[in-house]
Amino acid sequence: MKDLQSSLDRPALLSPLNFIDGEWQSALSGETFAVHNPATGEVIANVPDSQPVDARAATDAASRAFPGWREKLPKERAAILRKWYDAIVANGEDLARLISLEQGKPLAEGRGEVAYGASYVAWFAEEASRIYGDIIPQQQRGKRMTALKEPVGVVAAITPWNFPLAMIARKIAPALAAGCTVVAKPAEDTPLTALALLKLAQEAGVPAGVINIVTASREHAAPAVGDWLADERVRKISFTGSTAVGKYLARESAGTLKKLSMELGGNAPFIVFDDADIEAAVAGLMASKFRNGGQTCVCPNRVYVQSAIYDRFADVLSTRVAALKVAPATDEAAQIGPMINARAIDKIVRHVEDALAQGARALTGGKRLTDVGPNYFAPTVLADATADMLLFREETFGPVVPLFRFDTEADALKAANETPFGLAAYFYSQDVRRIDRVSRLLEAGIVGVNEGAISSEAAPFGGVKESGYGREGSRYGLDDYTTLKYVCQGGLA
């Protein structure tokens, strides 16, 4: 812990405790669990192992704070959010170091995540004053009908490990802008960044009880969150993570009919048509696939290349991938860091071995890099992938690019949509008719056309089918934290 604090310009930014009702505190049981550096396997901190009683204390605080927070003028909430944004930017280097240490991504990507997460706080600070309702055209004389947007209430935010700052900022910022209060649980692998973010929110003037955060181990996470699922005071769940866990949360929260936002698993296709700019397509694939070592929900998982350009595309791509530098985040030149833990590595190994056994060819990579550290896998390109392989059906979540061959546009669309998931999809083409046609026919909530970097605070982020529902970011994302009230006033004639 002291070693970790010594790596920060502001050691006080690290508060390895729960934050409930404006106070930093241990779990009531006194139990803790370890947070590891995935690059080395070393323990870097111990944080509270919370249980239902801690989660309930957080709900109590959020419920008490809700009436006062919702009554603040939108511009007052916006001013606090803006101060929070300024604090995030001012402490950006320390936050980037924390992200890289506990999550493993290269420091340059950690800095990018800080900027990305902060952009949501700035965006929703501005949107707080733009929560408009409607005056409904008069239907009867003497009556005025209006539709008003009001905060939904206490929000439970449950976030993943791959973007420990951006994902929690993307949920808390719109909740606060709308007038909601929050209880939150970050992923057990990466709680330190979220706790630091809350420290900055406290310094920015967020009142006690408006944001509360508890940490819990994998063993205790379900019981702790279960208390929120059963508590009728928690009116909304916002979750980013696997489809299996999302379905569990939906089932278990049904008893109180909570509002749900679910950003779940993906299996993104990336289609390269024979009229594409090959260099641009390779650059777009590199940007979208190898961000965070392939550990993002919108990473391309299946790359379809039209037969006429398949070999040329594979050659250009494999040359670029072979040149990627794999190293810990402490190496400023690192482009690919470690995977989050041993389970992640095991899944990648299983997918690659299955593909090779069924006839795929490794053009580059295809193996663990144990000489670098315990959780590293070489960036990999696999040729001759088929629909019989595990990596077609399951999201690999690692630096592995399987190349599938296709002949016609219809073949590509059928294969791309042949999945229960529908978060992101990408394609490259210079045919304007095809661009319009394929954009419409891809079954995904997000489509990148001749572009690999698709995320923005100004755009709605979310999926269809088993990739979930609800949207984050943009003005549409704010609607998920409000309810619509119809008011009919009579006697006006």
UniProtKB/TrEMBL annotation:
Catalytic residues of the enzyme: E263
InterPro entries per record: Ald_DH/histidinol_DH, Ald_DH_C, Ald_DH_CS_CYS, Ald_DH_CS_GLU, Ald_DH_N, Aldehyde_DH_dom, Aldehyde_DH_Superfamily, Succ_semiAld_DH
Domain of life per record: Bacteria
Aldehyde dehydrogenase domain mapped to chain residues: 24-487
Keywords: Oxidoreductase
PROSITE patterns: ALDEHYDE_DEHYDR_CYS (PS00070), ALDEHYDE_DEHYDR_GLU (PS00687)
Keyword hit for Oxidoreductase: yes
Protein family (similarity comment): Belongs to the aldehyde dehydrogenase family.
PANTHER family linked: SUCCINATE-SEMIALDEHYDE DEHYDROGENASE, MITOCHONDRIAL
Protein name: NAD-dependent succinate-semialdehyde dehydrogenase
